[in-house]
């Protein structure tokens, strides 16, 4: 994870000490160098000789034995340079340029430039800082007794930032507890929990892109007497989803008994009935989750956004065709990019006169009045009529949500 977070900075150090251009290095050799440089610069408890020897051995085991002297020489040169440090971070706001921020925070320049344009320099700086940190583990309590049971199992908890049912894990491994295994709590980012809460209540509810199932379970907990259909494109993921929901169904009053899992393409939903509530949590770039998935920033290209938008539009149009009059479609992504969010909503509204946007601020106010939302500054969670959380600006992943109502 450390190598993935700081890859471009590691590569710049390797390039400065290598007689060969990085582009000419075999991937196995470059990977071994990155691993060693990360240990030399960030992991101060690992002796330099151990980091060097380990990477030289990795190269040999990868059948690149002829490159071992080269790797050894580069790493010894680097080991004699700057001392290990875990304090590398983006610079202060004053006088920072997009190029400086991208280089110092190990982000692609094109992403940093987009965030500065969309959210301002201060917010872009906070996003980059957050992405380079280890994210907090958040959980959702599904039963009141879960908190006492977790504490009894050695888990140290703090209140959530957004929702009364959320907790932040300060110490301990929740996944190893009986409370987690029996479904009394689930691991779920607070912004993701908030999106599920926006779905509200309905007799017939559809989750279009359900795996891995966190939002599906949250919707079921809020709608224990409703009929809920969870759609997943890939049959093997649908099987895993069924297994997960069964395994995590709390013994007392299992809310997950009212969920039917179907393997189907959300772009061509196979239902004759209409639904009161539909969640379209569509596949996206995931740029709001880079602290958890740093590999995304090195894989994603600007051209990918157009392909993702086409898929998102198809899923949203399909969902809108399945909603009953007076019903709602909640569209969401964990992306920070306008093409996947506002642009998608504006496109479908231009095509469909029978839908209107519901202001998320009003729905968040309702959740606050009902005691579910505990975040005091509701207006900071919205951008226009939409929900918008920003990593670092808010203590969670970056999520977007829009509520469309059929009139």
Would you summarize the structure shown here?
It contains 17 helices and 13 strands.
Number of separate strands: 13
* Mean pLDDT across all amino acids: 93
Quickly count the domains.
Answer: 3
The secondary structure category is alpha/beta
CATH topology of the largest domain: Rossmann fold
From the spread of the alpha carbons, the general shape counts as: globular
User: Gyration radius, to the nearest Å?
Assistant: 23 Å
Distance between the termini: 47 Å
Please give a structural write-up:
- The chain has 17 helices and 13 strands.
- By secondary structure, the protein is of the alpha/beta class.
- It has 3 domains: 2-79, NusB-like (N-utilizing Substance Protein B Homolog, Chain A, Orthogonal Bundle); 98-131, no CATH class; 189-406, Rossmann fold, CATH 3.40.50.150.
- The strands form 2 sheets. Strands 5, 6, 7, 8, 9, 10, 11, 12 and 13 form a 9-stranded mixed β-sheet that branches. The protein has a 4-stranded antiparallel β-sheet with strand order 2-3-1-4.
- A hairpin with a 6-residue loop joins β2 and β3 (166-171).
- The radius of gyration is 23 Å and the shape is globular.
Blueprint of the fold:
Elements: H1 2-5, H2 7-17, H3 27-42, H4 48-61, H5 68-79, H6 98-104, H7 109-119, H8 121-131, E1 137-141, H9 146-152, E2 156-159, E3 166-171, H10 178-181, E4 185-187, H11 190-199, E5 204-207, H12 214-222, E6 227-232, H13 235-247, E7 259-263, E8 275-281, H14 296-299, H15 302-321, E9 323-333, H16 342-351, E10 355-358, H17 360-369, E11 382-383, E12 386-388, E13 400-406
Helix pairs in contact: 2-3, 3-4, 3-5, 4-5, 6-7, 7-8, 11-12, 15-16
